[in-house]
Amino acid sequence: QVQLVESGGGLVQAGASLRLSCAASGRTISNYAMGWFRQAPGKERVLVAAISWSAISTYYADSVKGRFTISRDNAKNTLFLQMNSLKPEDTAVYYCRVSGTDYWGQGTQVTVSS
After folding, report:
1. How much is the pLDDT for 44?
2. Over the chain, what is the mean pLDDT?
3. Contact, 98 vs 29, CB < 8 A?
4. How far is the C-alpha of 20 from the C-alpha of 34, rounded, in Å?
């Protein structure tokens, strides 16, 4: 069993930055790929970024490429998402997930005002 807890969300103005964290407990996530997803009101949950267990490989959705950076600290069992140049369309609840499993966090709200 893995528990995931996201933090770092908030209300910011367009152009600002936020850093999301996803702290895992219960078992190590160092052997798993991880992903950040987001769900805007009335829309489906979509993958924003993903990272391999070794952090060698990363993936970004086109909408965030060049602005968001996913990283991980396996020693601290933590996943991060650095979000720069935020836009109003980035407003959503952000979730972390252990790839290939049903382990999700509870989500953290990110709201970007114009």
Report:
1. 97
2. 96
3. yes
4. 14
Could you give the percent of the chain with pLDDT greater than 90? 96
Condensed to tens digits (0 to 9), the pLDDT of residues 29-46 reads 999 999 999 999 999 999
> What is residue 59's predicted lDDT score, i.e. its pLDDT?
98
Give the 3-state DSSP-derived string for the chain, with helices as H, strands as E and coil as C: CCEEEEECCEEEECCCCEEEEEEEECCCCCCCCEEEEEECCCCCCEEEEEECCCCCCEEECCCCCCCEEEEEEHHHCEEEEEECCCCHHHCEEEEEEECCCCCECCCEEEEEEC
How far apart CA 23 and CA 79 sit, in angstroms, is 7
CA distance 93 to 65: 18
Q: Are 70 and 12 in contact (CB under 8 A)?
A: no
